[in-house]
Amino acid sequence: MLLDCDEQLFMAYKQNSEEGVEKLLAAWEEATSTQQEDPQILGTSLSPQLFLVNEEAAKNIAFSTARKYWGHVSGEMQLLFEQYGFDAKFVNERLSAFFYTQKGKETFFEQLFAQHTMDLERVIWLVFGKRLQITMPVNELQTIILYKFQDEYFMHMMYKEKAPFWHWLFAKKVYSLLIHRPLEQFTFLYEIMGHFEQSIRENCEHVDNFVNNYKAILDKCITYVDKHNPSCLAKKQLRLYQIVTHYCLAEGDVQKVKALITSFETEWRYSMYALTEKEKVLIAYILFHIANREQQSEAAIRYGEYLLEDERLNNYAIEILLEYRELLPNRKPTPPAIIKNYQLNYLENLYAVLLDHYVKMERYTDGLALLKEHVLASNKKIHTSLVQKNYSQEQFITIEAYVQQDIALHVNNSLQHIGLSVEEWRRHYYQPEAPYHIVAQSASLHMLNILRVLFVTEQFELFEKLMEIYKKYLLIDEHFENLRRFISAYV
User: Fold this and answer.
1) Cα dihedral sign for 60, 65, 71, 72?
2) Residues 223-273 pLDDT 10s
3) What region, left, alpha or beta, does residue 251 occupy, with left being phi > 0 and alpha being psi -120 to 50 degrees?
């Protein structure tokens, strides 16, 4: 079931692609008696009155559309259900009980309203209580999207057939809401802008430089919105989204990001919507990595210590991840491991980068304190050795055993046949084509910084054992030569 405007635009698209749709939109705009400016940032805008609906209409359209496409079982889907022990009679009874009852309709809309998206996999979870990976048949409904704007609802369907059109139309609708509706009506702005970005990306596959195109569109929209909206929470959130987006899409150029942050802090520092602690942490995290990228060690240390103080980054990481999934690398931390890619977890990366800048600034005592205070700055056994001053042979054997386990997991993702995995690692880890070459590079650089700190602060027993382990399992000639010169300068 399509909205009238969606159906007309879809027919125009099938007949004459985007050009036909833009002509239809221009005709609609000319026939509409409105004095509101249309900045034409993303072509002709669409009047929100054409696609916003009331709650009852939203419930009926969403549920009837879902029932049409997901309320029956194809032969392909039944084969999948049978793999999970569900026969055809059981499946059809459960689907009927869901899609042909008021309770099913209410449950469906409650979930759609709470999650903002609905797809077949989520419907199966609602109906059967199981999460199954379903391959959607061709030309079928992919996703239903729903957001509330005051007393009205913005609902959009994504279909497999002519998928670029449905992404184009979604982006057009979000753009039109930004232009024609007060920004304070936007709820869950981060999510809707994430969908907006995804749809622009999906619809611009033929454009070589999506990054610059999207950033230009976003900046123009935000400039227009800033001009036509009073100060409000959503306006601040939109500016934060702009900063994060420019940072994530920076491709090495961070000057624009720094300028946006300066402007943002100046504008919002003393407003009634002053920065929250979480927002300060988010900005500090970005500036920390910019300082690292520019090798500004003093700034990197200042922001890094701020993020660690009172566990600020750790305390707000989940909230930041919920809003900006791409900002924080979120692989599960591995406290027992020393051989790993430190860029894959935001905390492990923070410790590795901060230690590197402590070394660069010759702040070795601070580096040692970092290793003693935070397990993830090294690993459990190294941390225990430092804190408890346990330099026994048994402890060193355990440290090496942990290193071997790390290697086995990287080579074969298994702790069986550790010896064979270690042999394979030692033959290949320094080769650029090896699948774990990046892991070896990251671990080598971090291990050598630990060794520098231990050497200068005279933790010689642990230094000697870790040096032995490094030479045995991680030796990279270029890195080791730098360490050799470092030690020679202190002898």
Assistant:
1) positive
2) 999 999 999 999 999 999 999 999 999 877 899 999 999 999 998 888 888
3) left
State the average pLDDT over residues 176-188.
93
- Strand 152-159 relative to strand 117-118: parallel, antiparallel, unpaired? unpaired
In the predicted model, what is the mean pLDDT of the chain? 91
Q: What are phi and psi of 61, to 5 degrees?
A: -65, -45
Bridge partners (DSSP) listed for residue 141: 159
Strands of 141-149's sheet in order across: 52-53, 152-159, 141-149, 117-118
Residue 426's alpha-carbon distances to 408, 430, 462, 475, in angstroms, are: 11, 8, 23, 9
Residue-wise pLDDT tens digits, 51-102: 999 999 999 999 999 999 998 877 777 877 777 778 888 888 899 999 999 9
Q: Phi and psi (nearest 5°) for 351?
A: -65, -45
Residues making up the chain, counted from first to last: 491
DSSP letters for 112-153: HHHHSEE-HHHHHHHHHS------PPTTSEEEEEEEEETTEE
Higher pLDDT, residue 89 or 366: 366
Tokens at residue 260, please?
A: 């946006």
pTM: 0.91
pLDDT tens-digit map of 293-324 = 999 999 999 999 999 999 999 999 999 999 99
Cα separation, 406 vs 413, whole angstroms: 9
Query: What residues have CB less than 8 Å from 354, skipping those under 6 apart?
Result: 300, 301, 304, 305, 308, 370
What is the C-alpha to C-alpha distance for residues 32 and 176, in angstroms, rounded to an integer? 15
Q: What is residue 159's DSSP assignment?
A: E
Query: What are 51's two structure tokens?
Result: 């696609």
**HSE (side-chain half, CA atoms, 13 Å) at 253:** 7
Report the Cα 12 to chain-centroid distance in Å. 35
E runs forming strands in 340-426: none
Cα gap 12→225, rounded to integer Å: 30
> Which tokens in the block code for residue 371?
């290793």
Q: Confidence band (pLDDT; 50, 70, 90) for 22?
A: confident
Give the span between the Cα atoms of 46 and 32, in whole angstroms.
11
Alpha-carbon gap, residue 478 to 315, rounded angstroms: 38
Residue 488 CB: number of other CB atoms within 10 A?
8
For residue 175 the two structure tokens come to 């753009």
CB atoms within 10 A of CB 45: 23
Q: Which tokens belong to 61?
A: 């359209």
Contact 115, 83 (CB under 8 A): no
Q: What residue has token string 């833009």? A: 22
414, with CB counted inside 10 A (0-12, 13-18, 19+), is exposed
- Rounded to whole angstroms, the maximal C-alpha distance in the chain is 85
Q: What is the SS3 assignment for 206?
A: coil
